[in-house]
Amino acid sequence: SGENFKNFDKIALQVTGSDVPQYITSFEDAGLRTLLLDNIKKAGYVKPTPVQKGSIAVILAKRDLIACAVTGSGKTAAYLVPVMNILLEQGVAPSHGMVQKPEVVIVAPTRELAIQIHREACKFAYNSVLKSVIIYGGTVTSHQRSNVQAGCNILVATAGRLKDFLERGVFDFSCVKFLILDEADRMLDMGFGPDIEKIAAHPTMPPKGVRRTCMFSATFPEEVQALAAGYMEDYIFVTTGTVGG
Ligand code: ADP
Ligand code: MG
């Protein structure tokens, strides 16, 4: 068991767990693909935020992760950048068909949040083979379904709509490398625990330890800790916060 504690611009980054990967200090030093680095720059990102420094290193090392940091701290890119880099390294091919096999599944509590995540994924995927597709509730499924079937490497979904699509056999999760639960605390508060369970325990979903699981949360209450214990293996815990005084 190891522990790092460093100050960055008065924001503390704490990374705990076994064999903690060294945090990254810049996007350039993270060994990212040129295309991804270019897209990060185009998005206006100059240097990683503290939660990105810790999380990008952990995900690139293919470890399970829980990251807790306040709203606005950059948690979206903290997982999108490393998972997209891994997909690009592995040479994921675009696909299309009735049953889609995404490599990354990102579950979010609300449609607004899912839209934000998908937009950021599209920016980082610009000019690459990677395709992000979004599905959410409150609208008819037909249009979303044909979008999905036109090709889907990265699936961004609200929990309830994803559960519905799974019941209709739209997805096969056998290629999933990363299951990302964004705003895990809020999803549990909103009662999506059973939907998350159906997603994580889907018959085609690789088990924990085979797929990687990453959870992002503003808070870390007992319910989120229990979720982590069920879905993760030997996870790394990244937290950030303002240094007092
Ligand atoms: P969180 O999920 O922690 O609430 P977001 O991922 O939504 O935070 O990011 C908040 C805002 O900061 C977004 O507008 C995002 O584009 C921007 N942002 C994230 N990381 C960086 C960065 N490294 N440099 C500049 N802006 C960033
Ligand atoms: Mg967020």
TrEMBL record:
Q: Where is this motif: Q motif?
A: 25-53
Q: Which domain of life is it from?
A: Eukaryota
Domain (Helicase ATP-binding): residue spans on this chain: 56-238
User: Which residues belong to any copy of the DEAD-box RNA helicase Q domain?
Assistant: 25-53
Belongs to which family? Belongs to the DEAD box helicase family. DDX4/VASA subfamily.
- What is this protein called in UniProt? RNA helicase
Query: Which species is this UniProt entry from?
Result: Daphnia galeata
Query: Which region of the full protein is contained in this chain?
Result: 326 to 570 of 782
